[in-house]
Write a structure and sequence with these properties.
- By secondary structure, the chain is an all-alpha fold.
- 62% of the residues lie in helices and 0% in strands.
Length: 195
């Protein structure tokens, strides 16, 4: 994939790693949407499209179409948890179209599905104040060196006031604290709490 001057390249294999990472997060919370809207297949179609691409299928308009449909489902959702579960599904399918542009907004294609899933965890486990942070820890643990390398090509996640934006910034910071493959290590000390 060629890119404009000042930007970088992303291979299809790297895009598949990003799509897999997002699909794993969306898959975790898909049932929240489906329980609230049992007759609506749009978020599942988006997650399925993300998995198809992540597992080696060609990137096609299916990822774009299902992503847009899942995002429409999010806008129509009955509550915040269902909305965010559908948004995570849409983000997973959209990850196939991460652009090689050095813009902070692109980080959402990599991390927003995970941040949405963490917020869903918070909303569905109100008696567990650490549910979202615990999910971010597990998410960080499944980040591959390729994913971390791709993330390092982008600026920091955009800041925002929403809880999803906060969670995405926290995940971004914790992943960037991991050494980028092929560079001297920067790691989070074992005694320091990080999501």
């Amino acid at each position: 994939m060629t890119s404009a001057a000042g930007d970088f390249e992303l291979t299809m294999d790297e895009l598949r790693v990003v799509a897999r990472f997002a699909a794993e997060s969306a898959q975790e919370v898909l049932s929240v949407y489906e329980d609230a809207h049992p007759g609506d297949p749009r978020p599942r179609a988006a997650v399925d499209a993300a998995w198809e691409f992540a597992n080696g299928a060609r990137r096609t308009k299916v990822q774009r179409v299902t992503s847009l449909a899942a995002h429409r489902a999010a806008k129509e959702a009955a509550d915040e948890a269902a909305c965010l579960a559908a948004r995570a599904a849409g983000d997973a399918a959209a990850a196939a179209y991460l652009h090689p542009l050095a813009k902070a907004t692109q980080v959402g294609h990599i991390l927003r599905a995970a941040a949405c899933a963490a917020r869903v965890a918070e909303l569905t486990a109100p008696d567990d104040p650490d549910a979202g942070l615990d999910l971010l820890v597990r998410t960080r643990q499944r980040a591959t060196p390729v994913l971390i390398d791709v993330l390092h090509r982008y600026p920091l996640a955009p800041t925002g006031r929403s809880r999803v934006a906060e969670l995405m910034s926290m995940l971004d910071a914790s992943l960037r604290a991991v050494a980028r493959p092929g560079t001297p290590g920067r790691s989070v000390p074992a005694n320091r709490a990080a999501p």
